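# nightly structure sweep
# worker-07 picked up a monomer target from the shared queue
# config: single-sequence mode, recycle default, output format = structure tokens
# input follows
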Amino acid sequence: MNMTSVDSRTRARRSPIAWLTGSTRRYSVAGQMAIVVVLSVGALAMVLPFAWMIATSLSRQANFTMPRIPTLWPPDPSLFNYRVASTNLPIFRYYLNSIVVVGASTLGYLFFSALTGYAFAKGRFRGKQILFVAFLATLLIPFETRMIPLYALMSDLHLNDSLVALILPFLVGGFGTFLMRQHIASIPDDLIDAARQDGAGEFLIFRRIVLPLCKPALAALAIVNVIWRWNDILWPLLVISNRNLYTVTQGLAIAGRGQGIFTGVALATAALAIVPVMVVYLILQRHIIRGITTSGMKG
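# output follows
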């Protein structure tokens, strides 16, 4: 009889803890379901306009009348709008200019960001931390504030109205340096010191040891910079006036305005500008996640 009363008292003492544990688990599951619902709604809000744009760009009827209820599948699938867009505009020249600008600026951005990141992560010189903080402070200055001095500099160098003016100002930046510095800081110092003791120079260490270990961060930085430079329109509008040097976004924004009365053709030109960078992003998106997560955990 006494043992029964003891067991009942023990269960009574444990029951609140068990109830709290079960309640916590129920709240945890409910919280995860709420997160999934919110993210799903956000994903639909992002994807549906893009899907509607693609569907409408494939419809010839969209040039004359728009459906009152947006559809995600064209009633008359056709590439007519894309043929008109590519015929009315020198779209392939715009693509070539964008590829040159994006390719050159991305390669330079990766190289200089990795080089300065290595100097700040593994270099030994006075004032390194102060200089690094000052370098990062440039991130607090909006591009619109730096745009006019940059334009004056390009004008003094006689580089305006050239593709070089679209490349040179973006060969180095605070974000890329910070990302690479954080990633390179995770490389063991013993590996760098061993190479130095073997007589390897700093640039050789950077090229043979550091760069191969930075592939995830470099891939993430590359795709981010590609998206930035491909979608850039403000700076090209300021420094480029020659139509033969227009990038894709600039050319479609200026030369494509005449097609605005034809909705299907206008959306086809927009799709021609967006789809390439979307494809690149979908192919390399895992590198973005891996590079940023492995680069931001160590200070």
